[in-house]
Amino acid sequence: MKKAMLIVTILFVAVISTACINNMAVQELNNTAKTYMDKGDYKAAIDRLESGIELDSTIYETHYNLGVAYLEAGEYEKAINSLNNAMKLNSKYANTYYTLAVAQEKLADSLINADSHSISADNDGEAETKSPTYTNVSESVKEKMIEGYLTSIENYQKYIKMVNSQQKTEEVSEHIKDMEKVLSKLGYAGQSY
């Protein structure tokens, strides 16, 4: 009986020690990833954060940070996936909803065919982008864009409900109004939230 208790104790200590070591290693990977992100090296940050998730997939911050890194790298679908994983681990962090909304909006924006943007060169040779007209966008792309914008607006609304800043609430509310104008240009006539 004493041997069994000793074995159980050793196993318990080993599991706890491994968890602590993994947690420290994941934290170090998160810190290193932040340094890379601050330098604009999102690929290196993503590599560190993915390694952190391989060590311990239960740490919310790693999933959130990976979502931010993917967003900054322009990999919107991966950002959305990582941020949804973060939300499953901690649904009470307002910034997750905001960052997810940004990723969803950027993904919807990215669906527009480059031909629907009117780009002209001015006398200095610099490109000037005019507002898209959405007339050359196929119906299937419009539907995907509308779905993306509506989902984004839902997450912006969740953010507004959670954030304790009048200024942020006003800024995001104004942004939602701008998105509703885009939805109207895409032919969406329903209520967005």
Structure description:
With 193 residues, this protein is mostly helical. The protein has 2 domains: 1-91, Serine Threonine Protein Phosphatase 5, Tetratricopeptide repeat (Alpha Horseshoe); 104-193, no CATH class. Helix content is 72%, strand content 3%. It has helices spanning 2-38, 42-55, 60-72, 76-89, 94-110, 139-162, 166-185, and strands at 119-121, 127-129. It has a two-stranded antiparallel ribbon. Strand 1 (119-121) and strand 2 form a beta hairpin. Helix 5 packs antiparallel against helix 6 (139-162). Mean pLDDT is 82; it is low at 11-21 and 117-129.
Core attributes:
single chain, 193 residues, mainly alpha, Serine Threonine Protein Phosphatase 5, Tetratricopeptide repeat, 2 domains, two-stranded antiparallel sheet, 7 helices, 2 strands
CATH architectural group of the largest domain: Alpha Horseshoe
Counted beta strands? 2
Task: Tell me the series of helices and strands, N- to C-terminal.
Answer: HHHHHEEHH
Number of helices, counting only DSSP H or I runs of 4 residues or more? 7
The separation of the N and C termini measures 63 Å
Using the coordinates above, name the CATH class of the largest domain: Mainly Alpha
* CATH homologous superfamily descriptor of the largest domain: Tetratricopeptide repeat domain
Structural class: mainly alpha
Shape: elongated
Taking the sheet with the most strands, its summary is: 2 strands, antiparallel
CATH topology of the largest domain, by name, is Serine Threonine Protein Phosphatase 5, Tetratricopeptide repeat
- Summarize model confidence as the mean pLDDT: 82
Task: Give the % helix.
Answer: over 70%
Biggest sheet: strand arrangement: 1-2
Low-confidence stretches: 11-21, 117-129
Rg from C-alpha positions?
A: 22 Å
Count of separate structural domains: 2
